[in-house]
Please model this.
Amino acid sequence: MQMNEMILVSVDDHVVEPPDMFRRHLPPRWRDVAPHVETREDGSDVWVYDGNEIPNIGLNAVAGRPEDEYGMEPTSFDEIRSGCYDIRDRVRDMDANGVIGSMCFPSFPNLCGQLFSRSSDLEAGLAILQAYNDWHVDEWCASAPGRFIPLMLPPIWDPEAMAAEVRRNAAKGCHAVSFSENPSKLKLPSFHDEHWDPFWQACSDEGTIVCLHIGSSSKLVFTAPDAPIDVLITLQPINIVQAAADLLWSPVLRKFPDLKVALSEGGIGWIPYFCDRVDWIYSRHHAWTGQDFGGRLPSEVFLERIVLCFIDDPSGVVNLDRMDIDRVCWESDYPHSDSTWPISPEMLWPAVGDLNDDVVNRVTHRNAMHHFRYDPFAERPREECTVGALRASAADVDVTPRSVGRRLEKKTGSADLLSIPHKGMT
Amino acid sequence: MQMNEMILVSVDDHVVEPPDMFRRHLPPRWRDVAPHVETREDGSDVWVYDGNEIPNIGLNAVAGRPEDEYGMEPTSFDEIRSGCYDIRDRVRDMDANGVIGSMCFPSFPNLCGQLFSRSSDLEAGLAILQAYNDWHVDEWCASAPGRFIPLMLPPIWDPEAMAAEVRRNAAKGCHAVSFSENPSKLKLPSFHDEHWDPFWQACSDEGTIVCLHIGSSSKLVFTAPDAPIDVLITLQPINIVQAAADLLWSPVLRKFPDLKVALSEGGIGWIPYFCDRVDWIYSRHHAWTGQDFGGRLPSEVFLERIVLCFIDDPSGVVNLDRMDIDRVCWESDYPHSDSTWPISPEMLWPAVGDLNDDVVNRVTHRNAMHHFRYDPFAERPREECTVGALRASAADVDVTPRSVGRRLEKKTGSADLLSIPHKGMT
Model:
């Protein structure tokens, strides 16, 4: 296999929602309370909902921006690449990067819809969340058949409503849901509480994979108020190990044996170390902690049930034989600052080029197709889905960085993030 | 090389301080305020200092206890193995485990002496801390020449006093100091503040290695109040990645190029992933964050300056070629629950047995000797320092688990730890 023969499906990208998204999907009764976009005096665009303003942070839409113009400042739609919010340009940006399929996490509602859970009127919140899901499935994804894996948001304030929304979306062909890596940090019950059982049961019944994205606890790990932002950017992905441990030692995986969970943007380089660690703890401590995995090891259960996801992780790829090769998926993370766009194939190939073709195919697309119930080949022949074929069709897409002429005056520190509540920066 | 030919030096063990420790080392003026041991109504022994009671938590002294009697309950001296606090029995327990050298972290003062920093009279606090260090160096370590690497505690409330104490102890041959993995969490300035420069300078001048032990921020990472204790035990070591990132992106390593830092009990399995990550972040973000490592990569600076430490970490050992083989040290962690005592050689050998002898010697003892300025061979011939030789001399030591007839009535959850302030459980 050559680099251009890879078929790339990314199970982690992000949409910056376009201002008109609710127009066709919200019943008239709720139109006055729907989130809408306003332009602030500084020229930045914000979503406004229920008295809250949600800016679009620079690092969340830096695709196509020069690296010395990255930053934490709020942005306007005309400062970000149109592929962030325009579905036609998004598809062309995917083509230019050789990516056939993509699953898009939300931006302004937060990673698992936390914003809607803070609605003063939760009936309105549910209607708006459902409109969001309808827009995502019926408009964003449906505009480009065969190019997107739909991903729904759950009404996290009500497990029965979550279950109903999972079933409603599954009936429409959406089999992935974004949930919180740690609902306890959102002041909701933890994974250890049976509170969530109706939700887990619905996902299990419908074959809907639960995606826990880094940052979806709305809690960043701060080392110190004066720590430079590099510290936070370093720690953000590896903090998913907290969710991994929480979930593994909780009853969830053992109680719902058909449930699938993905650690979105979680990386894979830490997995062998984590597996060694949990098995040692189990052997040493289960006699007094009461944990029981039957005749199995915790690492076996973990690797068998968790879909692992990585963007660019050479030390993880080297250790693929310590994971379940059928449960490792690739990500592009467009348009965030960790994204490898527009050179994803060039970044990925050195890590996987020496593996056998079957392993490359699993990691680049087959595992994603299986676990997320997605089939691009139903829409176009396989040979037209390769990196080379897609890029050939997008030779006219300009991927050179475009300056917007703004540059931070001061260094951004971790403490600057404290003033931007409820936003990840992944 | 065979297993019995290894020479083992552990750079992380723990002493449970004996009740009479201050008798010979504290000026009369302070004897009335010195910490002392009292027995509570439940039969457990506690240290009492300045109105605070500090229990000895079960997991901190489980060596020799059956695994179904592990737990978080307070203990008394007669319930724990005498090697925890008695220097003669400690040496015999080391012999029985084939360990020639050991560096012992404190117990009741917390990992970097936090207890003394909370003294209502800091003049008394300093006198008591100095007495602690004198006991540790002149009594605990000096009782068994050639068997211990001395480790001092710093008066963390005053960087100038820290520098003076570093110099005072260096003159006595102590070249290791325990400091906090994150002083910001102790309500002190962070690594990013020049506040600590006198301390870093003294350590740099004196060739004193700064040991950052997991848990020395006095902050545990809790996922949820109802998370089982297994979650916390899993996450405790990997949280050192926070200190690693904090230190690497701070000015410290670049400002003090001769300073050495050890990540005590930090493990090594996560290192290759961490190195990939920081280099990617540097290449992608330094243009706007302003980080500058000259012509080098952050991972190069990290690996060149940080001494890495592991107890039992098979996936880390497999990736030793991604680290600096001259800066990886082994640990035993006696008598904590992560310890491999009394089968440390049997646990370590399968991981290192296939490496060449030179690498095994570096990891098991040569690196420790170099970075911690310790030389057991000055006291006894090398051939008498091997696992086989030491164990042959300790054939009469009984290492079978000894029941104390107590067993937890209920499961311990993470929340139970919240009631035990300032204690790690590593």
